[in-house]
Prior knowledge:
The protein is mainly alpha-helical. It has helices spanning 3-6, 11-21, 31-47, 75-88, 93-112, 124-127, 146-168, 176-201, 206-209, 249-262, 277-290, 295-303, 308-315, 324-337, 352-367, 369-376, 380-386, 388-406; strands at residues 226-227, 232-236, 242-246. The protein has a 3-stranded antiparallel β-sheet, with no helix packed on it.
Amino acid sequence: MPDRALSTPLHDSFERYLQDKGKGRGGDGGNYRRNAARELERFAEWAAGDRGDDDWTGIVPGDVDREPTFDDLDERVFREYARHLGGDRGLKQNTVQTYYRYISAWCGWCVNEGHLEAHYAQRASAMAPLPEDDGRKPGDQQAWTSEQRHTLTRHVDDQARDAVEAYTTLPADTDPLDKQRARYAALKAARDRALVFALAYTAVRVGELLRDPNDPRRRGVRWEDLSLDDGSMDVYRKKQQWDAASLPDPVISPLRSYRKLMDPPTDRWPVFPTFDQRTLAGLVQEELADRGEHPDAIAERREEYARDLLLALEEDIRPPSITTDGARSILQRLSEAAEIDIDHPKHDYLAPHGGRRGMGEVLVRAFGYTVAARYLDNSEEMVRERYSHIEAGELGDVATEALEEID
């Protein structure tokens, strides 16, 4: 291997690797890219001696003043890093495995690119200090129970009904700004209801339903993506292609009511737009300025509306969809307001993925793994693995019945 490749600083390979692993044009997006970038930076800091125990000085010889290069890497380095992840950082065993895999994947890429002679990170001696992986993903085991799902959907349904009724029954002589405030409250409650019902019953991944800031292709579903008459919705799936997802009956009515209340200017509007005032204020001012309106005129227009969202609807200034993080914030607020009893080691609220997993449990129990796999857009093998506890419980019932009969 050329000395030039071995003398290359580790940092010099990061951007190219992340572009190859990223999504979208130029490889700038994607959650994997973001997470890999974080772990690569941590690895580089550790290699330079900036992380780890107080007596850790890094992988560069003490009498040399330079940053780490590929010439400094061997299986002993990765063994030491595995030990650092497993002990020094106090991480859970599955998290350690996940973080190490990011570094291992980069190491394999470096071999293909000619930076390294061998995939040191995958050698048995390098991986020996890693804790055993029990097959579970940390924090990804929450599933909404039937009681939790009913409590949450009943709460948002009541809130939306009250807000819509309060708006639609206002006297004719109500002050225009007060009427706008009532409409805004009704819109927000109706949006929250539609979102909760979609997460609870469609089993669509939250990243397929809403905007992911790290992936430009995931801009959130728009009204043009929905067919309420057919009960279907086009989403950009995890497998990197558009596909139709089902909209079961419980979701149709909340969406119809919400659309009627919103009356979006075009079908290209997001189904679940952000209601963040700072975002909308900046968007409205920028768009109206681009249309040639004077700042004073823009200020006067904004004063005519109780909220910038209502002005955006009037002027067809399309806002972005709420993000996946925004959905988590909404569910935290609603879970607390609905006073839902939640017992989970990581989440003290009903997390978005729990709706999908809860629906998976319902489908497996009612129709088996094959039907559930089709609805969840997963392989049957994957569904069997993730919901194996259901089959185990059913077999346990069979064993109990057999024991009662024989004994």
